[in-house]
Amino acid sequence: MTITGNHKARKRFGQNFLVDAKIVDRIIATIAPKQEDNLLEIGPGQGAMTLPLLDKLTQLHVIEIDRDLISLLQSFNKDNLIVYEGDALKFDLNTLPTPLRVVGNLPYNISSPILFYLLKNRALVQDMTFMLQKEVVERMVAKHGNKTYGRLSVMMQAFFEVELIFIVPPESFEPAPKVDSAIVYLKPLRTNLINNTTVFEKVVKAAFAQRRKTLKNCLKLLLTQEQTTIDLSQRAEMLSVANFIKLTKDYEKQH
Ligand code: SAM
């Protein structure tokens, strides 16, 4: 299937449209939508995922920033499609029915801000299925001790179960991106292990600010070795997510 139409892809909106019907089918199978689910699609574009989702749902909410694509989506004339125009990062998720299942082939230029925005709103979220650059998904799922393990890995795994589902080659898109993409599935962890997300983020950010330095060095403005049982002579990439949580608790005790 090739999506027809004369929309010229806009780079500034990270537009790479899915044109591979088999990949679309696999994504829909991964989402496995049930009729009454509250689905939100971020960046529906020309509707590659939207149309098959509409066939399965009583209602589908979509948020799209590109006005030209808004007109195209409205021209589908689907009663069960609710289109919002604007920036997904400014959209108030509280206005939608919950729990939310969020899906999308995300604009790559703002994929991290979207992930962090949803992290902050995770109480509203049932699960999320996204297409992202493969390299980003690899960082999201990386375990400690790995080169790709970093701030994104810790922040995502502390709050979500994260799974790389499958890899998507550049030819599946129009225009084709330069790199592979991947489908990632995220589900909020049932037990909230962190009291204060902002404090956790601050500790994780400081720890990875200078990857080659020891934690003692990176965290010197936050806590000393005497204030924690975590060995600060190691580098941040050696510290498990559980130990980052412990480290943050030790930091919170001091403040
Ligand atoms: N879902 C379509 C597909 O798979 O073919 C399009 C995916 S394309 C990678 C990303 C889409 O997100 C584009 O339609 C783009 O206009 C839209 N977009 C970009 N930035 C956005 C933002 N801040 N808020 C909402 N949508 C955005």
Mean pLDDT across residues: 95
Q: Please give the radius of gyration in angstroms.
A: 20 Å
Low-confidence stretches: none
Strand content: 15-25%
Strand order of the largest sheet: 4-3-2-5-6-9-7
Corresponding CATH architecture of the largest domain: 3-Layer(aba) Sandwich
- Share of helix, binned: 25-40%
Oligomer state of the chains in this structure:
single chain
Shape call: elongated
CATH topology (level 3) name of the largest domain: Rossmann fold
CATH superfamily of the largest domain: Vaccinia Virus protein VP39
How does the helix and strand content classify structurally?
alpha/beta
Features:
255 residues, alpha/beta, Rossmann fold, Helicase, Ruva Protein, domain 3, 2 domains, 7-stranded mixed β-sheet, two-stranded antiparallel ribbon, 9 helices, binds S-adenosylmethionine
